[in-house]
Amino acid sequence: xxxxxxxxxxxxxxxxxxxxxxxxxxxxxxxxxxxxxxxxxxxxxxxxxxxxxxxxxxxxxxxxxxxxxxxxxxxxxxxxxxxxxxxxxxxxxxxxxxxxxxxxxxxxxxxxxxxxxxxxxxxxxx
Length: 126
Fold this sequence. Notes:
Elements: H1 65-68, H2 79-95, H3 102-125
Helix pairs in contact: 2-3
């Protein structure tokens, strides 16, 4: 028989998987739910909120706050109005044999309608 040799080194790690630091959910017992409901403090004991102080807007000399940011007025014409005007512009252009395309017709129709709508507003105000 062979003689056994004894070594002083540590034995090698086993092939079993190492345990993780966090236990599995099945191993952790469920925490009991509190039986006493949490009630907020009564309204009388709460501290009152301080009133918010809004700073006054100071207008520049000679200008009022209303004139500072005028709201843009919506167009007085719709997309259908532009489409109809562009159609008639294209018909006229093609009848006369002039060069152009539908994009130019659309832009021209928008320009015409915009100028007509501003002109009509000025005439109404006067």
